[in-house]
Specification:
heterodimer, A: alpha/beta, 4-stranded parallel beta sheet, 14 strands, globular, B: 4-stranded antiparallel beta sheet, 3-stranded antiparallel beta sheet
Chain lengths: ~400, ~110
Amino acid sequence: MNGGFQAFARQDGGKGIRNLVAVVYLIECARHVAQRITGRFEEGRVHLFGWSGCYPNAYGAEMMERLCTHPNVGATLLVSLGCEGFDRERLARRIEASGRPVEVLVIQMDGGTRAGIEKGTACVRDMLEKIEAVPRVAMETRELIAGTICGGSDATSGITANPAMGAAFDLLIEAGGTGIFEETGELIGCEHIMSERAANPALGEEIVKAVSKAARFYDTLGHGSFSPGNAEGGLTTQEEKSLGAYAKSGDSTIRGLLKPGVKPSAPGLYLLDMIPDGEPRFGFPNINDTAEIMELIACGSHLILFSTGRGSVVGSVIAPVIKVCGNPETYARMAGDMDINAGRILEGHASVREVGGEIHGLMEKVAAGQPTLSETLGHQEAVLSYKTFEPLGPDCFPH
Amino acid sequence: MPAEHTPLLLIHERDNVAVLTRSLPKGAAVEIAGRTMTLPDALGLGHKLAAKDIAKGEKIRKYGLPIGSALEDISAGEHVHLHNMASDYLPTYTHEEGRRFGEDKA
């Protein structure tokens, strides 16, 4: 596979597969104004996300910076209430330094809700014009970063959709691309088989440590990454869900361990450790699937592969989400939300490898601009919550 | 119901549970481990049936790997789920009475 397509060249060297304006609220209190501004524009070109809390958090600041300077983002409007804890000036400077147009709307200084919406709308209109001029550049499959996640899992996810996404990941990595898989809390029970796939023994040890950190964290909170819907769908235990989830990583060597917001330093397969470091605080690591998607995007994922059995409908801001449905009964009910029907594997109509090839082919088309179903439907779910991380050690990176 | 029509998938040869590849109604005949049994309740796609007799305390194996332990003796053909097996790591919570998160165990 050496698929080539046209991408958007950013001044910081990044290549994006989408060219959008981000409208970013810096506290929940500014969301309404940001949302009204976003609503004035055609769906798909202007994306809304933000940070809800009033108190500063280093992880939050880092995530917001990574998201606002993601290759798919062409320009950003920051929407501040004015008195919140988020350091808007610092974020604006970082975005500016990446070469992207950025404007800051401060509702308390800019005349309140009505005037704020008008001013913000004018800013976004101007930005949409500006980013039309972003130069196009050739991009290849080997330059793509894809993230993978499963959500609304049932017992089919681990038999059909996840192995097929794993096969697609293997094809991507064979082509020289980069894949990121995650949720160490959903890999509990897989730590030893996973560490055997590490590029070196030191990384293998770090992987085992990362999963035991996840087990400890969830144990303290008293609840694993397991929902009632998982059990209704035939999954009984965390380790059963984990083994199914693990299949989406494919068979490639694991090159390194990432933390949210850290970009892979070389192509290959990476595990994202999303469990906070230190003593458990601030509650559950990722409060829902969209929080995991945001972290995969903050690590540089251009697009996301999302497997579901029960039938998740979520999409995302910034990066297109390709929905792979593992359950043929769910597919029959929700075909309008599902890009790929991996349930055919269960019915004997297709092999894991065939569906893997189909997913890989669709990834290339989506990278070239074809919208996914969740994009067409206007899904743009996004959430971020408080976390604490320590910097990555050198062993977790490829040389 | 002949064996080839039983919609069951044994993912790995070491497994002691098989997975339903189709939802089945109450009373459906299922052939497993050389026995024909009748489903006492409707079962959804993806649910597990014991592929052989499993002793209390024995590991339940799927994908060739342990996914928890049997809480009681389980006969071949029985539904294997929350009522007769449990995680070796973390508890599983559902919307059912007695299994909800935060509910005090009786």
